[in-house]
Amino acid sequence: MATYTTEITSDKLISDNPIHQRLLKAYIVARDYVSGDLLEIGCGEGRGVEVLGPLLNHYHGLDKIGEILETLRKQHPGFVFEQALLPPMPGLKNNTFDWVVSFQVIEHIQDDLLYLQEIYRVLKPGGCALISTPNIRFSLSRNPWHIREYTPDQLRDLCLRVFDKVEAKGIGGNEKVWKYHEANRISVEKITRWDFLNLQYRLPAGLLKIPYEILNRFNRNKLHQKQGKSVEEILHTDYLVMDDPEEALDLFYVLHKKE
Q1: In a domain, 129, yes or no
Q2: 2 within a domain of the structure (yes/no)
Q3: Which are the contacts of 132, defined by CB distance < 8 A and separation ≥ 6?
Q4: Are 151 and 135 in contact (CB under 8 A)?
Q5: Please, which residues have CB within 8 angstroms of residue 1's CB and are 6 or more apart in sequence?
Q6: Residue 239 contacts residue 170 (beta carbons within 8 Å)
Q7: Is residue 8 part of a domain?
Q8: Could you tell me if 239 and 28 are in contact, meaning their C-beta atoms sit under 8 angstroms apart?
Q9: Is 151 helix (H, G, I), strand (E, B) or coil?
Q10: pLDDT in tens, the chain (259 residues)
Q11: C-alpha distances in angstroms, 127 versus 26, 119, 157, 190?
Q12: DSSP labels for 185-238?
């Protein structure tokens, strides 16, 4: 049984399509980078193994949701899927993988420095990691599922504490994408204007998760009803790789481990 929350975006729900395509874009970009043995941290419903698996010698997926992993094991018996709460990753040996990909994960990790140190540890000398996370400059409200979000400089500085070289890129979009984002911003502001006491930033995250899920799903459905095909017809090709992460919706960083 799939887990269709607004935080675990699905390709099965039409109202989620703009977000699904945005997340898919990171994997499409990753195809130009990855090879050999790859670890994916936060494999979710399997975008990574479906898009990247055919390019690899070996794929190893980690996720915390065991139910999803059982399905992936049946669908992709030649690869490894393991349930894990991390960091650390004690079951993985040093210098094991040519590539690590971990998209839209670091914002959920309490000890983000240890998370990066563990990625560095399991990479082979000369290996690289690809990570993505929302650019806080374009976040429309507090997401109680996120421990924190980053500016481009904050993420770059954190990564440079661990990795030997950091290429800071981003994923933005064309006019169709920004039109949806602007409609989303206006819709969200109509909801949050009732938060007179700014409770979304004052209450503990645990108290906000259910209201956030209800309102976020309501908002996505409302946008779909109003915009129709403009929601349905956004494709991953409408999302663009940017050399300047400052104006990107998502930060997309390439992290290098020295030879």
Answers
A1: yes
A2: no
A3: 26, 103, 104, 171, 250, 251, 252, 253
A4: yes
A5: 67
A6: no
A7: no
A8: no
A9: coil
A10: 344 455 666 666 788 899 999 999 999 999 999 999 999 999 998 999 999 999 999 999 999 988 889 999 999 999 999 999 889 998 999 999 999 999 999 999 999 999 999 999 999 999 999 999 999 999 988 889 999 999 999 999 999 999 999 999 999 999 999 999 999 899 988 888 888 788 888 888 888 888 888 888 887 888 887 777 778 999 999 999 999 999 999 999 999 999 9
A11: 18, 10, 20, 46
A12: HHHHHHHHTT-TT-HHHHS-HHHHHHHHHHHHHHHHHHHHHHHTHHHHT--GGG
Separation CA 125–CA 134 (nearest Å): 28
Q: What does the alpha-carbon distance between residue 151 and residue 21 come to, in Å, rounded to a whole number?
A: 22
Q: What is the CATH number of the domain that holds 218?
A: 3.40.50.150
Token pair belonging to 77: 């018996």
Domain extent, residue 141, equals 14-256
- Residue bearing tokens 């040519």: 98
In whole angstroms, how far apart are CA 236 and each of 47, 121, 220, 232, 233?
Answer: 13, 32, 18, 12, 10
Pull the structure tokens for residue 14. 């039409």
Q: Burial-class residue 179 by CB neighbours within 10 Å (0-12, 13-18, 19+).
A: middle
Up-side HSE of residue 234: CA atoms within 13 Å toward CB? 29
Quote the pTM value. Answer: 0.91
DSSP state of 150: B
Domains in the chain: how many in total? 1
Output the CA angle 88-151-230, nearest 5 degrees: 105
The answer to whether residue 109 sits within a structural domain is yes
